[in-house]
Fold these 2 entries.
Entry 1:
Amino acid sequence: MSVELPKLGGKFIQMEDEIGSMASIIGASIGGLKSMTATSGPGISLMQENIGYAVITETPCLIVNVQRGGPSTGLPTMPSQGDILQARWGTHGDHPIITIYPHTVPEIFEETIRSVELSEKYRIPVILLLDEVIGHMREKIDIEKVDKNKSFKRKTPDVPNEWFFPYERNSSGVPAFADFGEGYRYHITGLVHDVDGFPTSKPDQIDAFMKRMFRKIDDNLDDILDWEEYELEDSEYMILAAGCVARSAKQAIRTLRDEHGIKIGLLRPKTIWPFISSVLIDKAQDKKKIFVPEMNMGQLLLPTQRFASSICDILPFNKINGEAIYPHELVSFIRRNI
Amino acid sequence: MDKKIEFYESWCKGCGICAAFCPKGAITMDKMAGKPVFDEEKCIACGLCELRCPDYAVIIKKKDKE
Amino acid sequence: MEKNVVHKYLRKNKKFPHIWCPGCGHGVIMSSMLRAIDKQGLDRDDVAVVSGIGCSSRTPTYVDFNTIHTTHGRALAFATGLKLAKPDMTVIVVMGDGDAVGIGGNHFIHAARRNMDLKVIVYNNNIYGMTGGQASPTTPSGKKATTARYGNIERSFDICELAKATGAVYVARSTSYHVQALEKYIHRSLSKKGFTVVEAMTHCPTTYGRLNKIKEPVAGMIYQKDHFIMKAAWDKLPEEKREGKFPMGEFVDIEKTDFVSKYLRLIEANKE
Ligand SMILES: Cc1ncc(C[n+]2csc(CCOP(=O)(O)OP(=O)(O)O)c2C)c(N)n1
Ligand code: SF4
Ligand code: SF4
Ligand code: SF4
């Protein structure tokens, strides 16, 4: 990015640490720019406090996290899916968030664009969660497919300054964002604030603010959620997997169907937060079992159990040795367990 | 000199800074009320009390300026 | 109707008096800043005031500019992003001493090193005021704090020396007692391009004052009057007489190209 951005009039800065990176992209977004940062491992932990700041101030920005194994310094450049729950609950306090989880390089390209759009549209930080396996992979991207003239613009206010409420409660749940320097002199704070942007400790104002923050996401799930269904049509069994594990799952499904006659398919959330709960409930209805393979000790398993445990059996498959999950491992695990 | 001292009582927290550093001793603190009392006679409109008031409760207006 | 310069810049929709304790020096620094901004003749739409967390960092709430109250210690990093997005905006960063050189010390030295065009005002009360008086990196050795009941055994930072060493283009120190100098230094910093630091010594009667027997606001200002000496006089003072005293005045005033100006040139040279 340090090479490409200046060519396009964009700006790149290498901050002193990931806390600073996260802070500076929020500052840049307040100044009206689309902004992003990227990290892996410990860096994403350092960003958490300010991710919460972006949530509460409703400042759009994109955070790319290429996951690595282990807590702490862990397993640099080795794959893991250990940050799935951190992406949801990493910053302190109750909050909504959007997390997108692509599984191929071209999909990273498309989903990055979608992530920025979602972030601008709903005024929320979006985390693009990646697997190391895909982060270091090379695949073809069809750049021509992208409409270069289509660039999502955030909704900005058009009312006179004195009528502007930076955190107004309108029907969409998303207030217009006044970029700094446009004549709307207002206050931004990480304290819970009322419609005018100033801190409040009044329970009714706090309640209205917090609920709007959740509502703007909950009311727009149709737009935010995305997933892929693979060979699900006639399947009796289902794998729920995201990222690189879904690639192995697809291959395992080919083998299981072609060589062993097992009717199995895949449900792959592309948006993992908010979770695709209604889709899962729908797809689980006629399944005998759901397999949840993950490179962690059961992080996607939790929401899967929450929404589908009363519908069918759910079986985790966990691998945390710094290796990817291979298709043959899934084939034998599934054959043993049906 | 023609001047006017404006005092916003509701903004004043009674810290006593204005009185302590008035070069002419034109301000005394009313012990009961905890608020300053200004003696316009003594005041030379130097404006220091206005500059140092942490609560922006005093304004010294020089009439000749207006 | 505007009552005076300071009132002109206060937010009409905020309740006054402000939240600071009676006699707290923070209010004096804020008014000095407002007078300096007025003198500089800046359009308020083109001014941003960014702060961290602390008593001092409540400043943005009250002033009618583009204002951001960020997270503890991170104001300079937020301001860096804002400045990159809005190169023509005057970005003023107000921080407490704990905010600026404690938790935010890393951002401070790097923003200075990079020469980001940010106008820093550190409200230095030598303590963590908002959280009840814990020792800060500027609590003088031997002085008391709630976490240094027996007297601080650590060495303290000299913020001006730190700013000087890390590359600030303008560095000055004044106090809430020396208001005219304070306003003058802030005004000078606003007229410069690059990373500037004005250290505004302020008295905190509630925590530092109470713990160190300078409880009355007036006593805090008398202390400043007696212990801060203009640089010219300080330079002539023999070593033994400097004990317990501090220099004030302008320490650095140089010209150096700032980061954003350099970056804009880089864009110009590499644009497609
Ligand atoms: C990460 C983090 N740690 C601790 C706090 C709690 N906290 C709030 S204000 C403050 C100290 C502020 O002191 P200083 O910056 O010196 O400003 P002052 O209040 O003295 O003006 C602390 C530690 C916080 N808000 N965030
Ligand atoms: S300095 Fe201001 S707040 Fe303090 S006593 Fe005087 S008028 Fe009141
Ligand atoms: S203007 Fe000067 S002389 Fe007059 S009351 Fe204030 S400090 Fe005293
Ligand atoms: S605690 Fe200290 S710094 Fe904070 S408002 Fe009170 S006097 Fe000022």
Entry 2:
Amino acid sequence: MHLIPCPYCGERPQDEFHYRGDATVKRPAPDAGEQAFYDYVYTRANPRGWHDEWWQHYAGCRQWIRVRRNTLTHAVAASAGPADALPEATP
Amino acid sequence: MSAPERLSRFPASRSLSGGRKGSDALSIVEQHAALTQITARKGRQSDVASIVARALALELADPGRATNGSGRTAIWVQPGSWLIRAPGSERGELSTSLRQSLDGAAAVVDQSHGRNVIEFSGKHAQSVLARLCRLDLHDRAFTPGASASTIVGHVSCQLYRLESPVPSFGLIVGSTFAEWLLDELQAAASSHGWNFQPVRNAAA
Ligand SMILES: [Zn+2]
């Protein structure tokens, strides 16, 4: 069973969560052009290692949270509320 | 003369006991409750806590907890939001009076008909619930007053431990899932046996 630490509820089983995508993408400026918006919507890095992701604790507190997960080992280094930043870097 | 009002969510045809016969049977009791969810407006959380404390003599619970006061329970459900459980006799009146006293500090939603309360208890309540739920419900991990929104028998459910000498849990579930949850609880409890007590009809 994979446990995800919710900043509000504590460690909870992964099946209480939905994956909600890459938390590193930033919306471009309105005049950034078509290619920038194409990349924002569709282009993802698929990294091997640490990755910041959106998860929603849909069967718990219903909040969207940021989770830093290792895509290789599934280890979770940190989590934070939607308005809070994750730590700078994970070695 | 009118027919007595049926207050139970469950059909009258449901069995009142099942599974193995013996003294270790689990008890499943449907509760007639008034439920109201309050969600604090942005920045009004401490106002909401003091208003509810004054109006109901009830302290709002910390995250992951449920608190009791004056026959009611405040269950934390998400940041800034609590479910207030009161006796069924307060249906309607509970949300009306909370809406009045909170006066816009929180959104107030009556959930009395939207959710059902089932109490599940017995010597083996924890090991039986463990068949349906992934949380650690051990005495040390999930003490009386602990509460969690989680999944029980594949259904979203508010689960909290009641103050009681025998392990006892309150389960608050969406009404349309209540019969499913009852089936799941009875199936999980059948190795020890179970007794089911629905809400009695109101007098005609
Ligand atoms: Zn949560």
